[in-house]
Amino acid sequence: MAASRFASLAAMAAAAAASTTTYSYADAPSYRFNPFAQSPTPSQSPQSGSEPSNTEPKPEVEDSKGGFDPEALERGAKALREINSNPYSKQVFEVMRKQEEARLAELAAEKAHQEAIQAQLAIQQQRKLAEDQMNLVEKQSQVKAQMLRYEDELARKRMQTDHEAQRQHNAELARMQEESLIRKEQARRVTEEQIQAQQRQTEKERAEIERETIRVKAMAEAEGRAHEAKLTEDHNRRMLVERVNGEKEKWLAAINTTFGHIEGGVRMLLTDRSKLVMTVGGVTALAAGVYTTREGARVLWGYVNRILGQPSLIRESSMEKFPWSGIATRATQKIRNYSSGKSSSLKDKSKFGNIVLHPSLQKRIEHLAKATANTKSHQAPFRNMLFYGPPGTGKTLVAREIARKSGLDYAMMTGGDVAPLGAQAVTKIHEIFDWSNKSKRGLLLFIDEADAFLCERNSTHMSEAQRSALNALLFRTGDQSRDVVLVLATNRPGDLDSAITDRIDDVIEFPLPQEDERFKLLKLYLQKYLHEEDDNNESKWKSLFKTKTKKIVIKELSDDIIREAAKKTKGFSGREIAKLMASVQAAVYGRPDCDLDSELFMEVVDYKVGEHQQRIELANS
């Protein structure tokens, strides 16, 4: 009961406070009501239960524009009086005070929140100002950098302009200097040409004077010799006429005597018929015998040559043309080797001849020679070979060395000899292979310029005879042979028939010699054409029948000079190097003292190099 009453009093106080505040105006005087003021105690009031005294302050009320409602004020005053008279007024005012403190705390919190918001806004404003300041500074730095770049670009352009102007000025100066030098050079050349023209004119006049002097002198000498010759000729003519007359008389006498004897014999034959018949028969028999003997000997020689002799297509061979020929030569050679103490059999097989090749190529050739020798010793089929490369690179020499080192006989033919034979080419090809069977050691058949008759059979330039010769060779080489090693050499391997290339087992390229090979070839042919030639000239037997020649003296020809010549002779084949050294030998023999020095050697080398270049230009044109 008391609690409900307390709550109602609190509500009334709140309503009174609300009413007092509801009707206050902004422009009216402030009306303050302190709800926490203590009510007068009973001792203070004059009468208990009586109405409040007149000492309670009354609000000052003034009329405003909207008017004033006194009822609300009365209701508030009444509520205050009830509160003051209520025993729970302290509790009510305490609650109101706490509510007011709570409201003030909320206002303070709201104020702190507003202040925090204002501080955050201030911080944001400061941040924004700082960002604006930074953006301004950055823009200023960018503008400054752009200004610096622009100034740098202007300075660079100005420098380029200055440099270009200086370059043009320098170019103009250089051009002027060059023109001045050209004018000076032209003036110098004109002066030199004038001097040379005057010298040539002087030399020409001098030569004319000398020629005229020589001509007059020669005419005088010729007239003297002619007069002397005329006198001598007259004397000789008289002597000759006398001799001719004597000989004439002698021959006339001999002719008269001979015809006299003939006349006597003819008269005797004409008078005796039996002697005439015997004489005519004897002369006829003698003529028939001579003719029969000549034709029979020709037929017999052809038969013997076909059976025992060497085929006509073979140009060179280690086999003798006839079995009995060369016996004396071989015996003489063996006696000479024995007397000189040469063990040629072992030495020749260990040495690879006077052939200079690239080390890899030489190693392969030696391997082929050993393989061929072992194939022969084991009676296995031989392998056919194809050598190709520029002319003069040693293909023929290598084939001969392979035959020598492998113990085979050697025979060489040329493809160009087959085409002129026509229809007989087939027979000649078969004769070669039949003749090869006579070799007891086996035969290495080397065909040089093989593309001359072994070209592609589809070629329009190939005759029927060449086609038949090619078919004959293909027939004889269809199977691998144990008697013949076929070695083909050509400068154009692409022109060979496919059936021929199918019969080839080893293909070897012979390139042009490199610098080291050319150096070795130059030293080899220098030894051959200059040193060995002197040794041959100084042999004892030749010195008995020939006049003694001067010995070639080599001066200041070192390996460095030969190396320089090897560098200059790039593109030379082995044959061209041999011809070069033969030209050096001829140049040495053209000198009266037969001396060879570096100057003469390099002069011949330069001449041959120029000749080689000219030959290449003529071939390419």
TrEMBL record:
Belongs to the AAA ATPase family. This is AAA+ ATPase domain-containing protein. GO terms for cellular component: mitochondrion. Residues 38-53 have a biased composition (Low complexity). The lineage of its organism: Eukaryota, Viridiplantae, Streptophyta, Embryophyta, Tracheophyta. The keyword Nucleotide-binding applies. GO terms for biological process: mitochondrion organization. Gene3D superfamilies: P-loop containing nucleotide triphosphate hydrolases. Residues 381-514 form the AAA+ ATPase domain. Residues 57-81 have a biased composition (Basic and acidic residues). Residues 90-117, 181-215 form a coiled coil. Residues 1-18 form the signal peptide. Keywords: ATP-binding, Coiled coil, Nucleotide-binding, Signal. Residues 30-82 are annotated as: Disordered. It comes from the Eukaryota. It comes from Lactuca virosa. GO terms for molecular function: ATP binding; ATP hydrolysis activity; zinc ion binding. Pfam families: AAA, ATAD3_N. PANTHER family: AAA-TYPE ATPASE FAMILY PROTEIN, PUTATIVE ATP-ASE.
